[in-house]
């Protein structure tokens, strides 16, 4: 199974699902030069958000700590610890801030 993100050009294969470790993220360079942070939870569901921390400008969200608050999966920035909802991109600590989210699917490899 591969993890694919929907970008402007269509579906982009990022990696094998088996390469992702629950609770840890990976950074993916996208065709437009931006980065996505890709995560998988313990149930095997994949998520992707923008990798840039909006508070510092650093490309570090893929290195953040994964958790859940009120049943919502989030990643906490490794720098200032703001939490970002992995489904919506909304910052749980500052409702005026959000990061981009990407549609994600898993596909069978041929």
UniProtKB/TrEMBL annotation:
SUPFAM superfamilies: ISP domain. InterPro entries: NirD (IPR017881), Rieske-like_NirD (IPR012748), Rieske_2Fe-2S (IPR017941), Rieske_2Fe-2S_sf (IPR036922). The keyword Ion transport does not apply. It comes from the Bacteria. Keywords: 2Fe-2S, Iron, Iron-sulfur, Metal-binding, Nitrate assimilation, Oxidoreductase. Residues 12-110 form the Rieske domain. This is Nitrite reductase small subunit. It comes from Streptomyces amritsarensis.
């Amino acid at each position: 199974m591969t993890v694919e993100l929907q970008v402007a050009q269509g579906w982009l294969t990022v990696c094998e699902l088996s390469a992702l470790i629950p609770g840890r993220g990976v950074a993916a360079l996208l065709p437009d030069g931006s980065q996505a942070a890709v995560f998988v939870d313990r149930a095997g569901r994949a998520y992707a958000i923008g990798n840039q921390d909006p508070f510092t400008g650093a490309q570090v969200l893929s290195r953040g700590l994964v958790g859940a608050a009120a049943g919502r999966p989030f990643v906490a920035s490794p720098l200032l610890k703001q939490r970002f909802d992995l489904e919506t991109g909304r910052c749980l600590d500052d409702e005026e801030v959000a990061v981009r989210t990407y549609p994600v699917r898993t596909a069978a490899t041929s």
